[in-house]
Amino acid sequence: MTVQISIRPSDHTFGCEPDETVLQAAMRADLMIPYGCRNGACGTCKGRILDGSVDFGAHQPSTLTDDEKRRGIALFCVARPRSDLVIEVRIMLPRMLDERSKELLREFGRINGEGVRE
Questions:
Q1: How much is the pTM?
Q2: Regarding the domain delimited by 3-112, which CATH topology (the fold level of the hierarchy) does it fall under?
């Protein structure tokens, strides 16, 4: 069953299939969220679960502690949704955009109060 994931503060929404991690589903939806190792070791993809639940997946205990899990932190490269989710993570601009497009997106983010990062 496909679940829906909403990203805050950007309000992007996308579907996630049962066999996908949050990161895989975001990438399939052409949304760039931070990541590095893709296997739960580096912590670059760490973000907050505001609503819903996940299977935290295989990861290094030092990269995601039990205390962080209790506080709703997850590694989105290995986390698989168990329900619809609302998450907090920054969206990054795709590297393939030209400089004018990046400038326009930055300005749009300022107008709407959203943080858009490269």
A1: 0.77
A2: Ubiquitin-like (UB roll) (3.10.20)
